[in-house]
Design brief:
The chain is built from two helices and four strands; from the N terminus they run αββββα. By secondary structure, the protein is of the alpha+beta class. Strand 3 and strand 4 form a beta hairpin. The N and C termini lie far apart (89 Å).
Amino acid sequence: MTVICWHCQTESPRDHALRIAENKFRLTWEGWNGWRFSGRFLIAPGRAGRITPERLLGLLWEEQARAGMRRPCPQPAQVVRLAARERFDGLA
């Protein structure tokens, strides 16, 4: 006989207690097989490691910054030559 939690009616009482009290649960969405939460850490499958929310935000920020640097400039830089009377030649 399978015991089902009286509160959520979908998981065992032990799994429910771990999810509510200790924030430990598995991610079951498509593409997240093997990933889980433990406290405030996102745990990778196997022994790949754990990541904090701050580190994840940093990785996403870095990825966004690099994507912005890869964008080509709208127009190439132009060299503007000043007339001799408008140059300071280090005397300003």
